[in-house]
């Protein structure tokens, strides 16, 4: 049960961090061919490693939660 709670917390923290990072980059005025690109903005600010880290935390969190669900007791 502890793994499920830890995994759920990691998943939600990673997902929320990724959403805030993507929303923050869309507040800028940079455009590519007339359309706004959040990934290009992430590259311009050097935030792609943070983006990948947040995605990794999200994936690890869901993996831990699933592992905790299917773990045998005793």
What does this structure look like?
The chain has 74 residues and is mainly α. Helix content is 74%, strand content 0%. It contains three helices and no strands. α1 runs antiparallel to α3. The longest helix is centred in the first third of the chain and has 24 residues, at 2-25.
Task: Provide the fold topology.
Elements: H1 2-25, H2 38-45, H3 48-70
Helix pairs in contact: 1-3
Q: State mean pLDDT (0 to 100 scale).
A: 87
Total strand count, please? 0
Q: Could you describe the largest sheet, including whether it forms a barrel?
A: none
Number of DSSP helices? 3
Query: Which stretches are low in confidence, meaning pLDDT under 50 for 5 or more residues running?
Result: none
Entry keywords:
single chain, 74 residues, mainly alpha, 3 helices
In short:
With 74 residues, the chain is mainly α. Helices cover 74% and strands 0% of the residues.
